[in-house]
Design brief:
211 residues, alpha/beta, Arc Repressor Mutant, subunit A, 2 domains, 54% helix
Amino acid sequence: MNQITVLLADDHKIIRDGLRVLLEANPDIRVVAEAKNGMEAYEQTKIHHPQVVLMDIRMPQMGGVEATRLIKRDFPDTTVLILTTFDDDESILGAITNGASGYLLKDISGIKLGEAIRETAQGNVILPVNIAAKITKHINRQGRAGLSLEDFTQREQEIIRLMMHGKSNKEIAETLFLTVGTVKNYVSQIYSKAGIQDRANALLYFRQLGF
């Protein structure tokens, strides 16, 4: 069985210990490292290359938003899933706009957390309804107004739909018999046309357009 590798980033050891026990009860999930602040999360990602970083927002030395930005900049294949007690707009928007693929609150059950990790590892975006509403409101302000499906070419629509199914650029290239470089160019054009800067926001934006 291929296990999903996870890095735990939280400044409270008792929470990291509890998360490790919860997650490792799942045979398909393995915790490979821990970090007590954002800088450690970045350094441990550099060493272990986890598939998913489970990241708290407020930590000493470096918080989760800045750590997410650095990790997604240097390790784009690593997924960041926020797990925190804070649901203020600044924290949510900061995390998502810097590349986080999900934002969960710590009242989530262990079963739901395991499901969320599997979903984000597959490229999907995980947001509770109340948090998704805040993000959507922000995207509607930031994205290009008045766009519809018809504003995207047939090839762009094919790529968007594959993105919506959690496909990576490499998987999209294999499906459409294109090079990865060509797919990256298309994705950049799609982002530019929509006025969106990253995949998590793009998925939410295109969901609003009906993809």
